[in-house]
Amino acid sequence: MKIYTRSGDEGKTSLIGARVDKDDLRVEAYGTIDEVNCLIGQAMAELPKEQFSRIYNELQKIQHELFDCGSDLAVVYEKNKHPFKTTQAMIDDLEKRIDDYVDEAPALEKFILPGGSKSATLIHSARAVTRRAERQIVSLKREHQIHNLVLMYINRLSDYLFALARVINYRLQVNDVEYERSAIVFKTDKSS
């Protein structure tokens, strides 16, 4: 099987329903989602798999969902004949995980620096790239109709990755480093 087609040699690529330049906003957005997926895979390779089996499985599920998001962005909305793959249930699941991880990690008052364990650092990197993907999707949405659940999912994913990085550090007994010039920006009362 050949993996090259030569069809992109002139700087064009195919969407589902159109052919566009390789630097088209859609391609930039789903390409950045692919970068997030790679960083998540790298973080998974660093996680002690037995200690973090549930998180490992969650991240693998998210990798599949990121393919769904990329696929939905590659569809020209007006020409779509099939249901989109990104669902509200995927977003709801991320929200539940976020709540669980926020409850597990120590209370946070100030901004923290990305870092700690190698796995958490890679998750923070994935979070930062997820934010870039979100910005690109917002730019895309200004010019084209998109499946809005993709934007919602990516927004929630960055929150999930932040909460996850903190939990990984916490379970590995690695302290987060507070940004030294940060004001108190987060409520610390976990009972409300």
Automatic annotation (TrEMBL):
Residues 84-143 form a coiled coil. Gene3D superfamilies: Cobalamin adenosyltransferase-like. Keywords: ATP-binding, Cobalamin biosynthesis, Coiled coil, Nucleotide-binding, Transferase. Pathway: Cofactor biosynthesis; adenosylcobalamin biosynthesis; adenosylcobalamin from cob(II)yrinate a,c-diamide: step 2/7. InterPro entries: CblAdoTrfase-like, CblAdoTrfase-like_sf, PduO-typ. GO terms for molecular function: corrinoid adenosyltransferase activity. Its EC number is 2.5.1.17. Pfam families: Cob_adeno_trans (PF01923). It catalyses: 2 cob(II)alamin + reduced [electron-transfer flavoprotein] + 2 ATP = 2 adenosylcob(III)alamin + 2 triphosphate + oxidized [electron-transfer flavoprotein] + 3 H(+); 2 cob(II)yrinate a,c diamide + reduced [electron-transfer flavoprotein] + 2 ATP = 2 adenosylcob(III)yrinate a,c-diamide + 2 triphosphate + oxidized [electron-transfer flavoprotein] + 3 H(+). It comes from the Bacteria. It is an enzyme of class 2 (transferase). Residues 3-167 form the Cobalamin adenosyltransferase-like domain. Belongs to the Cob(I)alamin adenosyltransferase family. This is Corrinoid adenosyltransferase. It comes from Bacillus carboniphilus. The lineage of its organism: Bacteria, Bacillati, Bacillota, Bacilli, Bacillales.
